[in-house]
TrEMBL record:
Domain Alcohol dehydrogenase iron-type/glycerol dehydrogenase GldA: start-end pairs: 11-150
Protein's recorded name: Maleylacetate reductase
GO molecular function: alcohol dehydrogenase (NAD+) activity; maleylacetate reductase activity; metal ion binding
Highest taxon listed in the record's lineage: Bacteria
Any single Pfam family the record assigns to this protein: ADH_Fe_C
InterPro entries reported for this sequence: ADH_Fe/GldA (IPR001670), ADH_Fe_C (IPR056798), Alcohol_dehydrogenase_Fe (IPR039697), MAR (IPR034786)
Keyword Lipoprotein: no
All copies of domain Fe-containing alcohol dehydrogenase-like C-terminal, residue ranges: 163-345
UniProt keyword NAD present: yes
SUPFAM superfamilies, alphabetized: Dehydroquinate synthase-like
Keywords: NAD, Oxidoreductase
Amino acid sequence: MRFVHDSLAQRVRFAAGEAATQLADGVRRLDRSRVMVICAEAERALAERVVGALPVVVWHDEVVMHVPRAVAERARAVAADRNVDVVVPVGGGSTTGLAKAVALTTGLPIVAVPTTYAGSEATNVWGMTDAGRKVTGVDDRVLPRAVVYDASLTVGLPVGMSVASGLNAVAHCVDSLWAPRADPINAAFAGEGIRALDTGLRQVVADPGGLVGREQALYGAYLAAVAFASAGSGLHHKICHVLGGLFDLPHAQTHAIVLPHIVALNAPAAPEAERRIASAFAARSATGGLAGLRAALGAPSSLRDCGMPEDGIAAAVEAVLAAAPPGNPVPVTPANLTALLCAAWEGEVSR
Ligand code: NAD
């Protein structure tokens, strides 16, 4: 065995129902006293619950998916104007993403309180959009110093969004198995992530208000993000980033829809990944395991239903080819990529 593996330095707290005390402790440990809370208007009540008596100097609620550059610049200006010394995002990946955009240029520390399964809080990856193009980068300044995972904050996440977001996390696990820096350590995280998400998401759909499934899903989402941050972006992520940037598609749903097509393309040419995915699902094959979970969850299946124009497929193929990661198990060609995107657009999933 010969490989190099980097681990990211971050304190992670899992404590259902205790976000307020855990967050206060996280901020106190950093010795900070001018908090910028970032939360969308819709998550304001959740955020007020967890922020408690923190010394908040500004509430910022301009949260937009895929972080348009102008939105990032306004948040940075607010942070500078109010002399903020720590950023606390409470919300999904879009909210965490805005906090990261602030940290990227200011170096301010982040203590994150995630409320979806996106996993951005556990990565050093930032993303921003500019003129229909999503740009991403890796920078340790954007990695939150601490994360508070409180499953009670996720019980109000609607089932449809929970399913899409949970499958976004499954995609982090799966794609990390053939990503450029895949190694035995991130593969172990990915396998346990798939197992936890498979168990947790089924419970979430059966009992959306129950904490047991919600906690398993959050635990799986964390493992998924660690695997993804460590292994890097594989073909699946490159495709979803291109689609998100070009057509402003909803992030989690796009991942949920594209994932089975990537597994169908890559798994037959990646026997170790195939075995690990199948075993994590306790299924006979990777495609069969994923299909079983998607059926149980009522997963979304068509990019057409998300608003992608059919005549956008050619532009997407061109953009993905320009960014395709090296070492994908199957060589990426205009033909197989076009077939994949046409099937994902139509909603046909091969098993
Ligand atoms: P999101 O943050 O936009 O949230 C989706 C919807 O869920 C929003 O309407 C939000 O208001 C609502 N919501 C969030 N939490 C809720 C709760 N607990 N109860 C009820 N409603 C709730 O979507 P997302 O899928 O979490 O994040 C997507 C973004 O995250 C994308 O921009 C994506 O690029 C980014 N992302 C980044 C990374 C990374 O490593 N940098 C990883 C994953 C995702």
